[in-house]
Amino acid sequence: KEIKLHLGELRNPKNRQTRYICAVHELGHAIMSAYLTGNVPSLIVSVSATSGGFCMTYDSDREREIRSRKDIQNDVMIGLAGYEAEILIYGDKDRCLLGSGNDINDTWSALRNSAYKFGYFSPFEFRNYEVQSSDLPGGLCDDEIVEKLRAEFDRLEGETKRILRGNLGLIKKAALQLGESGSMTGNEFLEFVKNTPGNSLTVARLETAKKENSYDFYKEVLEKKKKE
């Protein structure tokens, strides 16, 4: 008896019309990650059997490295890019899908933790948020720290919107294809980057961002200083 396997259909249910807005969301993450870090996602999925999509942007070269302010800023912008891409394309926040709250919470937590634990706003005073708030004047709700966090979050959100607007054509073109197929490899994403003119994400930008985002920066600066 012939057995038909439907794994592909299960992982990409064609009856889920939300796969198109999920495609926009995941491409927001993908484009922002590529623009800021130079890394092309290895896989982008607009819908799976049990949940929405995902975008694989893991960079093994950065494993175990100590993080900088720039890394935190990139994380926040990449995290916000999915939700902001939905708004950019569909316009109405009421039609955006639930689930982006996790992204927003994660980005806020990353920024907040960097302020309270790692001196993001140094030399402005910072505190270890794990200490009981009763032991600190003002506790975790220190007005000046919170004000700075909100201002920085708003600044990074604005920069996220600006970069996405500069890649509107790429989002629209690639998202339609991703919504139809359900998944896109890194090479397929790169072809869209190459063949969609008028966007700020280009092959040249990928190369520049890759160099700027590399931790080799620290060694290169020292080598230049040595020659001075």
Protein architecture, described:
- There is one protein chain.
- The protein is mostly helical and 228 residues long.
- Helices cover 59% and strands 4% of the residues.
- The chain contains nine helices and three strands.
- The protein has helices at residues 7-11, 19-37, 69-90, 100-118, 143-165, 168-181, 186-195, 203-213, 216-227; strands at 43-45, 54-56, 183-185.
- A hairpin with an 8-residue loop joins strand 1 (43-45) and strand 2 (54-56).
- The protein starts with 6 loop residues before the first helix and ends with a helix.
- Residues 1-12 and 129-141 have low confidence and may be disordered.
List the helices and strands and how they pair.
Elements: H1 7-11, H2 19-37, E1 43-45, E2 54-56, H3 69-90, H4 100-118, H5 143-165, H6 168-181, E3 183-185, H7 186-195, H8 203-213, H9 216-227
Antiparallel strand pairs: 1-2, 1-3
Helix pairs in contact: 2-3, 2-6, 2-8, 3-4, 3-5
- List SSEs in N-to-C order: HHEEHHHHEHHH
Termini gap: 77 Å
Helix content: 55-70%
Q: Major sheet, described briefly? A: 3 strands, antiparallel
The mean pLDDT is 81
Strand proportion: under 5%
Task: Please provide the count of β strands.
Answer: 3
Q: How are the strands ordered across the major sheet?
A: 2-1-3
User: Which structural class matches the secondary elements?
Assistant: mainly alpha
Radius of gyration: 20 Å
Unreliable parts = 1-12, 129-141
